């Protein structure tokens, strides 16, 4: 186990040779930026991939898991390192929340020296860790995990549109060509497993469990796609737990029984998929 307080890397060598990546599950502000932001605890909780670090913590069953404790508002691990600066609102260091609230006090957005230090301290170790894990040869499948808003936020390709409760992505676009990150038949097999597990969930007005229509724009998938290692991006809707029935706005807490229920549904679908994949 390795932990530098900002990212955590856990090696298990357990049931399946799988790497789970959770890039947006953190709620912390880098200490270098605490004095220059007005962001509230509620903002931090809602704007990240809420509960992702907990929902996808299948530590007992996979080879390795990598997550971040830092909020995606301040260090977005799923953005290209060249996309950063005050004129790039949805880059590594955001200028505003997904609903337009300014993140930094006026005229305090980090300068180039501070940006480089933040990338060196938080962003680069996360990406270096993925590279090292892949190079071990122990990883035979990568699952990148997110929780997502129920309606596409600004900057998203589906801005303003209702989202499913689960979405899988299994291809990218490179030089005009569509490249599969995981075989379509295998991906559909996982999709079917998830449909069965979530058949009783009604927290969307659109098709509940889908395969993405368009190539993934995610930087991690585009960076670490290795044709010898299948890679799927899985996104679970926050509508399943951030609602009046399961979420306390006062305490910023989701009902523990609901969390356990969702985690078990996810793992039953994944376990069946991995059994078929690895034999």
End-to-end Cα distance, whole Å, is 27 Å
Radius of gyration: 18 Å
Helix and strand run: EEEHHEHEEEEHEHEEEH
Strand content is 15-25%
- Describe the global form: globular
Spans of at least 5 consecutive residues whose pLDDT stays below 50 are none
Number of strands: 12
Number of helices: 6
- Which bin fits the share of residues in helices? 25-40%
Mean pLDDT: 93
Provide tags for this entry.
alpha/beta, 279 residues, 6 helices, 12 strands, 8-stranded mixed sheet
Please tell me about this protein's structure.
- With 279 residues, the chain is an alpha/beta fold.
- The protein has 6 helices and 12 strands.
- The strands form 3 sheets. An 8-stranded mixed β-sheet has the order 1-2-4-3-5-10-6-9, sandwiched between helices. It has a two-stranded antiparallel ribbon with strand order 7-8. A two-stranded antiparallel ribbon has the order 11-12.
- Helix 4 packs antiparallel against helix 6.
């Amino acid at each position: 186990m390795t932990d530098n307080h900002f990212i955590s890397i856990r090696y298990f060598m357990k049931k399946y040779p799988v790497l789970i990546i959770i890039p947006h599950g953190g709620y912390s502000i880098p200490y270098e930026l605490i004095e220059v932001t007005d962001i509230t605890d509620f903002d931090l909780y809602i704007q990240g991939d809420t509960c992702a670090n907990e929902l996808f913590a299948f530590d007992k069953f996979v080879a390795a898991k990598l997550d971040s404790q830092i909020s995606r508002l301040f260090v977005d691990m799923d953005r290209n390192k060249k996309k950063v600066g005050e004129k790039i609102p949805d880059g590594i260091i955001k200028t505003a929340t997904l609903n337009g609230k300014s993140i930094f006090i006026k005229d305090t957005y980090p300068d180039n020296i501070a940006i480089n230090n933040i990338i060196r301290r938080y962003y680069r170790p996360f990406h270096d860790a993925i590279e090292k894990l892949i190079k071990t040869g122990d990883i035979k499948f990568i699952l990148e995990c997110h929780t997502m808003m129920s309606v596409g936020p600004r900057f998203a390709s589906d801005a303003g549109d209702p989202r499913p409760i689960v979405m899988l992505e299994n291809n990218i676009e490179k030089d005009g060509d569509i490249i599969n990150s995981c075989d379509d038949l295998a991906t559909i097999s996982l999709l079917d497993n998830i449909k069965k597990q979530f058949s009783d969930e009604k927290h969307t007005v659109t098709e509940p469990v889908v395969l993405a229509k368009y190539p993934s724009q995610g930087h991690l998938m585009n960076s670490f796609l290795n044709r010898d290692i299948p890679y799927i991006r899985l996104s679970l809707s926050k509508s399943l737990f951030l609602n009046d029935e399961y979420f306390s706005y006062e305490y910023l807490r989701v009902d523990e029984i609901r969390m356990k229920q969702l985690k078990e549904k996810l793992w039953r679908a994944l376990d069946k998929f991995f059994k078929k994949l690895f034999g």
